[in-house]
């Protein structure tokens, strides 16, 4: 274990093919493989320093003391892996719009996995970092890499990890992220996907369909077929949300503003002939896949319709890495 503080940076990722259900809740083994795009715009910096003088882990988030049982549980995993008992100081800064509601668990646990394992004296491969990050939050397994990333579902702790599909993208694709300030209490991803696995009558159909989508989208990425990538992305997101509508009790993450933006994206595509496609996760925020050159025109149209929402553009981002604090 080295006693110097280690800082890591990891970016958030947005799934084009969704992870939405676990086979094993404790190990976080998913029901299906997923594929995401790591974004440059939103990231987490986490510093970890092990200190024999601490009687427990001390955690701060954005400069404020914080309590998070998932972080404590995760640090226990790191201690076990490194064969140490020492507690640590963990300081995490989320560079994500505060009202975002953007699932920052992906960047947070990927950055924590990198910084904590290194500070504990481990020198993990990116594959083992992805496996470790997965234990914090499934989607974090993908943020170890940049660009397009596939989380191969595997069947156990050894075989479930992410791999880079195309890490250094020479494709000028990107995402506009609309921050819909949500008043409603959202159901966490963890709770939402559990309900769906247990109660949606469509769940087996989802597994079959999303497995097909993954194969098709990888081919479309290889062929630089933006329209196909977009169509699959939009369809896959709606199928995921259909699971929520069909669950018992049913739930959904859409707000009226979400639906209005979704309809406007379809209008821009069909009437303005600007290729753009939406996806949504466990919240009301709409993410719009588009080519970088089209982003300003789309932002202008959206700003004229939704003046109270900011749409921030994100290019493909890099994988988790160590930085000077
Ligand atoms: O990212 C995706 O594939 C789709 C979602 O974002 C939702 F739309 C799921 C993210 O779930 P996560 O927060 O990783 O859950 P955990 O494993 O229970 O911590």
Automatic annotation (TrEMBL):
Which Gene3D superfamilies does the record match to this protein?
3.30.230.10, GHMP kinase, C-terminal domain
Which Gene Ontology BP annotations are present?
isopentenyl diphosphate biosynthetic process, mevalonate pathway
Q: Which Pfam families match?
A: MDD_C, MVD-like_N
- An MF annotation (GO) of this entry: ATP binding
Write out the entry's keywords from A to Z: ATP-binding, Lipid biosynthesis, Lipid metabolism, Lyase, Nucleotide-binding
Positions of the Diphosphomevalonate decarboxylase-like N-terminal domain: 10-162
UniProt-listed Enzyme Commission number(s): 4.1.1.33
| GO cellular component terms, A-Z | cytosol
Judged by the first EC level, this protein's enzyme class is lyase
SUPFAM superfamilies to which the protein is assigned, alphabetical: GHMP Kinase, C-terminal domain (SSF55060), Ribosomal protein S5 domain 2-like (SSF54211)
Mvd1 C-terminal domain residues are 175-308
| Protein name per UniProt | diphosphomevalonate decarboxylase
Classification of source organism: Bacteria, Bacillati, Bacillota, Bacilli, Lactobacillales
């Amino acid at each position: 274990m080295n006693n110097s503080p280690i800082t890591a940076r990891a970016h958030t990722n947005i799934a084009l093919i969704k992870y939405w259900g676990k086979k094993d809740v404790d190990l976080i083994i998913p029901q299906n493989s997923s594929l995401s795009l790591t974004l440059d715009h939103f990231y987490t910096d986490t510093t970890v320093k092990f200190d024999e003088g601490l009687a427990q882990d001390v955690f701060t988030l954005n400069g404020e003391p914080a309590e998070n049982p998932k972080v404590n549980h995760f640090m226990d995993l790191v201690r076990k892996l490194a064969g140490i008992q020492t507690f640590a100081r963990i300081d995490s800064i989320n560079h994500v719009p505060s009202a975002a509601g953007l699932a920052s668990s992906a960047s947070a646990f990927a950055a924590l996995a990198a910084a904590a394992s290194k500070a504990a004296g481990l020198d993990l491969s990116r594959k083992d970092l992805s496996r470790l990050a997965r234990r914090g939050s499934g989607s974090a397994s993908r943020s170890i890499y940049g660009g397009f990333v596939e989380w191969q579902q595997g069947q156990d702790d050894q075989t479930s990890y992410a791999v880079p599909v195309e890490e250094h993208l020479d494709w000028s694709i990107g995402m506009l992220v609309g921050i819909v300030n949500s008043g409603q209490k959202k159901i966490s991803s963890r709770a939402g996907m559990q309900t769906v696995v247990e109660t949606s009558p469509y769940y087996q159909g989802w597994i079959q369909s999303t497995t097909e989508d993954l194969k098709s989208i990888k081919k479309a990425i290889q062929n630089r077929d933006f329209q196909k990538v977009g169509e699959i992305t939009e369809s896959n997101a709606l199928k995921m949300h259909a699971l929520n509508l069909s669950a018992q009790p049913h739930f959904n993450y859409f707000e009226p503003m979400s639906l209005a933006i979704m309809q406007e994206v379809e209008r821009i595509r069909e009437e303005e002939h600007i290729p753009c496609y939406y996806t949504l996760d466990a919240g009301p925020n709409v993410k719009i896949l588009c080519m970088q050159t089209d982003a300003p025109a789309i932002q202008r149209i959206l700003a004229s319709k939704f003046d109270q929402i900011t749409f921030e553009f994100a290019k493909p981002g890099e994988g988790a890495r160590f930085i000077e604090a």
